[in-house]
Structures are given as C-alpha cells and as structure tokens.
Amino acid sequence: MKNTLIAVLILVANYCTAQIYVNQIDVNKFDYQYLELWEHFNKQSGKFYAMVDYGQDAPKSSHSESYKVDERNGEPKKFNSTIAMLNFMYKNGWELVGIKTTGDISSYILKRIPKMKKTDTKDSGTTENKESTKNNDKPEENNNDKNE
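^ that's the sequence the OP posted. Answer follows.
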C-alpha cells in the first residue's frame, strides 16, 4: 500500500510540473532562456492558438504545426485571448520582456523566470533567499531604545 501511494505521488508530481509542449516537445526540459510567442486566430472556432519559436529548425511559415503549443495528447491548445496565452506562459515559468512588431503582426518575447536560489544559514537554522540578504549587512537600529 505504501509503495502504491508513493508511485501515485510521483506520477502526480510529474504531471503537475510546468510543461509547454510545442509540436509534442516539452520546451521546459531544455535550457532555453528566451522564446518568441505569437497568436494565430482560428475564425471557425473563435479561439486563439499559441505559436512558439524557441529556435527549433522548422518551416518559416508562421502557421506551421512546428510552432503550435499543444496539449500532452498532441491536440493544439486553444486560448480565449492573447492575455490567456500570456498568463499560461507565466504560470509555466516564462515572463514577458518585450513586444516585437513587424508590419501589422505583433509577437511577444518571453524570458524564463529564474528559480530562486535558497541558502541555509547554519547559525540561525533558517533558510533565506540570497537576493534578500545582499544589501542587509548592517543590523537595523531599534528606535524604541532611543526614546528612553
């Protein structure tokens, strides 16, 4: 029973990790730092498809299947709007850093969100972010002691 529970937890953890599939390739498994995102609107369905260029070798057609973001099963992922696409990308570890406009077509430059590095401080037994301790070398003064 215990082994079954562990196996289920591992499967759930793998399923819940950030994944962006482009042409059935999980982009987040690679060390890409930037990608370009644009939308393709399907008039028949009234939905948007996200198109992603991460540097893959693909035909240069902007509507090529090689650029479409898809579900785990290979079906194209559909979005209600461009903002829904950007929110999806953010939830999966990418942030907007620029907008590129060529003629009447806009695309979005995204950068991988760096994971926070944790460090253990041995003397206090707490874990702190490196970023939060860079400029805090001096202890803060206690103003309550000065009023006595």
